[in-house]
Amino acid sequence: MVTDPIADYLTRVRNAIMAGHKIVEIPASNIKAEITRILHEQGFILNYKREADKGPQGTIKIALKYDRMSNEPAIRSLERISKPGLRQYRGGKELPRVINGLGIAIVSTSRGVMTDKQARKENVGGEVLCYVY
Fold first, then answer.
1. Are the CB atoms for 39 and 114 separated by under 8 Å?
2. CB hemisphere CA count around 18 (13 angstroms)
3. Is 26 helix (H, G, I), strand (E, B) or coil?
């Protein structure tokens, strides 16, 4: 049994990148689907597909993105910030800037899951889930 599904999601993606895999399969949930959507919109992954055939909620297949020339992954780091034992909440004005704006922080707000830049623009705070760069 997984006690922190978001940390499990990040670890599966991190391990697939370190092993050089092109595709990773992850058990689906709504929050994981939203995090995957954000990673796709921000250009960290090539594509994703939610399949309903395996498991109770299905799976998410993620096509990882690598540089064509150097074969370096687009995702350099995935870091879980808010943990089940210590939740990290920030207001709209105090959201962190990841690597001075080069990375993103994924935030769960009352208006849905969004990046730190979107949350700052809408002036809404929430739980800082993870940093990606």
1. no
2. 8
3. strand
pLDDT reading at 2 higher than 80: no
Single pTM value for the model: 0.94
Three-state SS annotation for 84-112: CCECCEECCCCCCCHHHHCCEEEEEECCE
pLDDT digits (tens, 9 = 90+) for 56-86: 889 999 999 999 999 999 999 999 999 999 9
Angle among Cα 112, 44, 31 to the nearest 5 degrees reads: 30
Distance CA 36, CA 13 (A): 10
Hey, what are 113's tokens? 């899951």
Helices (H), the chain: 5-19, 30-41, 116-122
CA pair distance 99, 132, nearest whole angstrom: 10
pLDDT in tens, 40-56: 999 999 999 999 887 78
Residue (of 131, 130, 111) closest to 121 by Cα position: 111
For residue 61, the cross-strand partners are 25, 49
